[in-house]
Amino acid sequence: MVTAPANPKNNAPRQASLEVFHLIQQFLYREARLLDEQRYDDWFQLMDEEFTYWVPVPQARYRRDKKGTYERDRMAHFDDSLAELKLRASRWKQRTAWSEDPPTRNIHYISNIEVEPSEEENDWLVRSVAISLRNRNEDEEDWLGGRRIDLIRQTPEGLRLVRREVFIAQTVFLSKNFNTFI
Q: How far, in Å, CA of 175 to CA of 133, rounded?
């Protein structure tokens, strides 16, 4: 867990101001809207060039089991760089992307936003809960929910996503495909 570095003036932990919190909250809401509208090129503009996106496959384990629900060395739904995400999104635009014709309709809900400083002065560790409601055709409906941990950086161009980890709740998807970002 990242702890807030001390403020050298008074040795108190550095905290996000209300202004920073509001900026990050609005950033996350805008990002959700871009995903809902499938404006992936605009979504990619919110990311740092070193962006990584990791969505591990959870495993249901007994409490006594030493292995956790989410492990880095196990399979992941996504373990992608920015370039790999761009490739995924570009495939959905192709005529041969039968799973996206007609396109999926998404609504992303973002809540429980917490902002804390990272070790770097311009970086923020942001925790949130995200739920994606997916609708396809006339009668296909899927809910996908998880906890997110983002690293968001303040740059001269504005806020940028540097890293996202999504810990989804579902161990088994009942949908026919997993063609959404959360």
A: 12
